[in-house]
Amino acid sequence: MLQTSHSAATLVQDREPEAGPRLYFQRCRWCGTASYQRLLCTGCGSTDFEMERSEGEGAVCMHRHVSAVEDRWPVFMSEGFVVRCRVVGAREAVRPGVKVRLSWTGESDPEPVVELWDAPADGRQPAMPRHNHPY
């Protein structure tokens, strides 16, 4: 198994197909707020984080201040944090609210890559934010 880690809270990739890509995020030990690559908790300002593995499911958020060349979208992950990702799939289908899941990426690109995804028949879907997000 080949693993690559780019920073404390980022994508870790496995070459084994059953393992799939993994995305780690930070959860504040004081207030429980989930965040991605932050020095301070956005909820309480603490620096005391623990790393958790994301389920890799989320939904595209509103797209602002990003050029078409970059083609990066903010994705609200089911654990409650937002990460900017490259979305793989039909470009015209990418819009706020569409469901995505983590996809495999090459070692040369440290940014997470997600693919368009239809929610499973059991109705399990990522929870959308309960508050107004800056994205």
What's the helix and strand layout?
Layout: E1 3-5, E2 11-14, E3 22-28, E4 34-35, E5 49-53, E6 57-60, E7 72-77, E8 82-88, E9 99-103, E10 113-116
Protein name: ChsH2 rubredoxin-like zinc ribbon domain-containing protein
Organism: Kitasatospora atroaurantiaca
Domain ChsH2 rubredoxin-like zinc ribbon: 21-50
Description:
This is ChsH2 rubredoxin-like zinc ribbon domain-containing protein. The structure is a single chain. With 135 residues, the protein is mostly beta strands. It has a single domain (3-116), classed as OB fold (Dihydrolipoamide Acetyltransferase, E2P) (Beta Barrel), CATH 2.40.50. The protein is built from no helices and ten strands. The strands form two sheets. Strands 1, 2, 3, 4 and 5 form a five-stranded antiparallel β-sheet that branches. A five-stranded mixed barrel has the order 6-7-8-10-9.
